[in-house]
Amino acid sequence: MEGMDLLTAPLDDLLAQASQLVRECADGRMLERATEHELARHLSAIGELSRLTEALLVDAVGEVSRRSEHGYRDDFMTTHLGCASVTELVETLTRVDSRTAARLHRAARAVRPDVSTTTGEILAPPFPDVREAMLDGVVGVDGILAIADPLQASSPRIAPAARRDAEAVVVAEARGTGADGAPPASAGILRVHAQAWALALDPDGAEPRERAALRARGITLGTATPTGVPLRGTLLPEVAAQLQTIFDAHLAPKVTFDDPTATYEDGEPFLTAEDTRTRAQKQHDALAAALTAAASSGLLPTIGGHAPTLVVSVTAEDLDTGRGYAHVQGCGQPVTVDLARHVACAGTIQRVTSRDDGRIIRIDTRDRVFNRYQRRAITLRDGGCIIPGCTVPASWCEIHHVTEHAAGGPTHTDNGVLLCWYHHRFLDRIGWQIRMNHGIPEVKAPGWWGTDHQWRPATTSPTRLHRTILKT
């Protein structure tokens, strides 16, 4: 039997009003013409309207869930509409991505009242105070989950009354009626409050959480694709914190030298380089540098008696011409010849000569790696990556042959400079030029950088910089 449609007409009216308002706002440039105080009020009101809309959405998702998770699958609403799950149905009908659909489903579980299957009685939701705040437009999906998730995770180990008390206190913070008189809290602050209460009420909960984290930890490398290798997984909190520390060290804001004393010997200012990488790309490059440093540290377990080594194979013809492909051992996709040159610049070249039928007839190995004594000397001279504006320290850098080894460049301190993984890997693309002038590295800015394209000495060595300043 079809039910009475009580919501279509009001929703159609709301949609028409909202559509008209959005169009009038855009056509009349109302937001652009508002003062700062007016714009702040508008943004706050739009946020409240969004939260009220989310309240309707959460309840609708909760009703879909009630009709799709009890009884026989053939009777589920999701089955009738051709979807495998509530999340899939929500994703299809609301045009959100799967993560947002899952969050809506989780929020609905926290605040949607259930109905007794035996008596038809409306049961209290798991978080009644959060539900009331949702219906009042105080919290949206972000706020619901910020409060419910931490308290829900601890619920098996704390008394229901204690959890309700904690919920009431955090909801008061959301309404701006908390004990400290603070204004209504954002979702991020609400999560902090809820986590604090969860920890206070569940002091022994860290151990179960740690056991769960240990079970969930893992990293998986996906199948190589032409655009890269996908990486997915879950890190333990302390491992993630260590990785974040590495990222922070690499991505710290670059130091600019506005002090007139921070110049080269000829009085010209220190150059800084434009970096167009996204933060995600910078974090990738920081991880690449960390892996390179770890592999060359001598502290990792050996493979066949040798340190973990990246093996890249390429034909001599392709290496000479710069065309064709190279292949990385353990990767199913071909890579560019530029990558082979990058690896070869700081590694060992082993030439294997074979006949057309595959028989190996000669092996020639040439070690072109700077030894630890040379590295120490170059570190003292250069300080870190020599590209101006780059703050990657020496311990994370690779040593670049300024004149390629294949072109006769020696593995000598007069031909080696420190470059971070990124600047070493993409030196030809980013436009910075490097040369050695009587054993001193000099750089020239690329064409897109300013108008000063002269050769300048480059160093971040504290000793050399200090001596330069004393000469001015």
UniProtKB/TrEMBL annotation:
It holds the Pfam family DUF222. InterPro entries: DUF222, HNH_nuc. Residues 373-425 form the HNH nuclease domain. It comes from the Bacteria. Gene3D superfamilies: 1.10.30.50. This is HNH nuclease domain-containing protein. It comes from Microbacterium aurum.
